[in-house]
Amino acid sequence: MKRLAAAAIAAVLLSSCRTARPEGVPIAPLSAITAAEAAQQLRERRADFTGVRSLMRVRATVNGKTQSFRAQLHLQDAQRMELIAYTPVGTTAMKMQADGDRITTDPPAAPDAFDFLRDAGLTPAETAMLILGMPPRDDMRLDYVPAGLVSASVGEMTAQFEPPSFPASHVVITSGDGRLGITHDEVVRRK
Questions:
Q1: Is residue 156 within 8 Å of residue 175, measured between CB atoms?
Q2: Residues with pLDDT less than 50, the chain
Q3: Radius of gyration over alpha carbons of the chain, in Å?
């Protein structure tokens, strides 16, 4: 009886620490034959954007220090987003919410933590769109292939998509001395 009770408690604890999977509908890849068609299809999807959720692995390097963690990205629209970073056991380490340029974090982050976004001229939601492989604006330097973006640059920020696809599977963002590698494990459209 004691073993059964211990197993039940362990199961509850393990399931409560597990990172939740995003709920939604899978996103269809682009059906373009040319790079110009891919650009047009991504502009159309941006115009009809209804929100995306992604479960991802992140590797961030700043000033020679590297951190790796799992995260969920909830992008509601072109202005509002939420990022939840998880500890190795799956509990919430930090939650960042953004509405336009206004950013709040729990626990609070240093005000200069998001300077790279301001330096690039992107809002957090626009950066999230880019991370997903969708150009948030047309005034960026963009390089396409039929499957999606190869690279995008704005200000000092550059995003490289490996391989080029939409939705993105892996993207590396560099800005100044910072490097952010993101691998999307699952990307879905919000229900």
A1: yes
A2: 1-19
A3: 18
DSSP assigned state of 128: H
pLDDT in tens, 127-171: 999 999 999 998 999 999 999 999 999 988 999 999 999 999 999
- Distance of alpha carbon 37 from alpha carbon 108, whole angstroms: 43
DSSP reduced 3-state for 109: coil
Q: What DSSP designation does 112 have?
A: G
What's the confidence (pLDDT) of residue 15? 37
CA 96 from centre of chain = 12
The C-alpha atoms of residue 171 and residue 124 are separated, in whole angstroms, by 16
**Burial class of residue 147, CB neighbours in 10 A (0-12, 13-18, 19+):** middle
Other CB atoms within 10 Å distance of the CB of residue 125: 21
Q: What is the 3-state secondary structure (H, E, C) of 175-191?
A: ECCEEEEEEEEEEEECC
Contacts of 165 (CB under 8 A, 6+ apart): 29, 133, 147, 148
